[in-house]
Amino acid sequence: MSLSKNIIRHRKLVVVIFIAAALVCAILQLGVSVNYNIADYLPEDAESTLALRIMSEEFDTGVPNARVLIPDVSITEALEYKKALSEINGVSNLMWLDDVIDLRQPLEMADRAVVETYYKEGSAIISLAIGEEDDVRIINEIRALVGEDGAVSGNAVVSATSKEMSAGETTRVMLFLVPLIILILILTTTSWVEPLLFMATIGISILINMGTNIIFDDISFITFSVSPILQMAVSLDYAIFLLSSFQKYRDVTDDIGEAMSLAMKRSLPAVLASALTTLFGFLALVFMRFEVGANLGIALAKGIVISLISVMVFLPSLTVCCYKLIDKTKHRRFVPTFKGSGRFIIRTRIPALILVVLLVVPSYLAQSRTSFIYGIGDLEPTSRAGMDEAKINEIFGQSVPTVLLVPRGDVAREARLADDLSEINNVVSVVSYAGTVGAEIPVEYLDESIVSQFYSENYSRIIVYGDTNGEGEEAFALVRKVRDTAQRYYGSEALTFGASANLYDIKDIVTADSLLVNLLAVLAIGLVLLLTFKSLSLPLILLITIQSSIWINLSIPYFTSSALSYIGYLVISTVQLGATVDYAILFTDHYMLNRRQLLPRAAAIKTAGETMLSILTSAAILALSGFILSFISTNDIVSQMGLLLGRGALLSTVMVLFFLPAAITLLDSLVRITTLRADFFKKEHDTHE
Description:
alpha+beta, Multidrug efflux transporter AcrB transmembrane fold, Alpha-Beta Plaits, 26 helices, disordered C terminus
């Protein structure tokens, strides 16, 4: 007995097993840890990763990652606030004016620039370190302490804000998206129940995928936000292929089990080819050295495999169990079949070819010259965090810390280094033992709590504060200058990390990842297409079709003068290719069959009519998923990925429906020559008949 018949025979057991697995995984996914710090995914040999590991091993106190503004306070009151802040569980390494000057002396006698770094216009600014594990609670306690007039900003606030805003966003996206997808499926199918079977199947596969993410130490917030949406949008096609084939075989046999068994065998090659192209597109991300890509790629690839198994095992079982309900809830198709659309498409093939040729070169050049951002983006200006940041910057300006670790032992050399660092443009202050305590004071005379802020057993810690943004040319130039200056004194033993330094390393690594990831995706998908069509020319035609739409998609930010998240740029290049090449496969598969009976133009007309509804349905679901994700997500990276995905789905659809028919008919002779057993219809056959 064949596997398909065995599945149908034990259909009730199969349904129970899948539902039980989904329930278990729904519980497991509650234990999956979500990481909102993208710097944690830098490779082990990145300088900022090495520095952070050494600091965590050597130092007990954290590095300041937040600033607290306390307005309208005296020196005495500011000190009381500092003490109250130090008593909050999870707050450490507080630094204020009393740590750099002797407050027993009149402020007028102190260096004005130093004083105004910490106390200005009656407002105090206190730097402190907030633990990552409980940053949301800590920041809420700080806000309660300083009141509405106070403010908190810094990298810790950005991370905590992302956590708070992202926590329920995936659920909100699903609440918007699922009813709309069901509506699309109702309009394009002929049963009220079929869309529910589709969604049940994909919903179960998503729950299983999310639960099995427990195998990771953690998943990135990008994976958490994007993978369920992408999995649903991409893998619904498999379910549509299967049930469409099932309906056809029901006209062949009255045996429901036999009809489903035949449908499983007939649809498997198409579903498998579709799944493999998507799978390889996602797996290309695994080869990114920046491990956010690997984290997302493995989760998505796992999701595709689970969806494939669910569609080919669970959906047939569920459908056979519910076929009577499907029959009772039949309705007419609410949208046209687009059978006559082929003639219009073929009439426009020459203008379509010319337009794409004119667009593709400038789009390719423009997409590589787009302005990129490498972090998680800016805070929403109207949010509490955004307004706090603006309030602090208005009084005290920007202050981004870069931490420098150098070998301990030569205080005089540290002092000279600190002096040179303070001379660098955009450096507003340098906190070191020599500058804060004094190089002439032996550490043996000081309390351990003071010494431990600067020295561990093997390293000296120097913090350089810059007045740049967290990223950008100015910020990255400052990182380079700090590193170059430190290396003049200590060579490769000097290590830096911090918000800007981390992003600088991310920039270097993801830029290097770009060519490799895109090349691997193209080669892997090209190989699948080669094996699917047994043709040398068709993989090139299909890849050019989708790759052109990707270049056009990614060039739009350049022409609109908007910055684009590089992580989103890199991920979408492979995701759009893997997810939308299916449209080109569907069109080409039908064209090759029709071409055995018709001449090129007639074959393309018939193919367009046969495939347009399926392509539009799939594209509408993918585009809708992207646009809703973009609309709801408050995180710039996730929001931009959603926008790129939605726009990319539409562009790929236009290219497949207008450019691909033009290209494949124009190159018909080349396709025939380079395709194994093409068996194309020739005109003389018609004459002979």
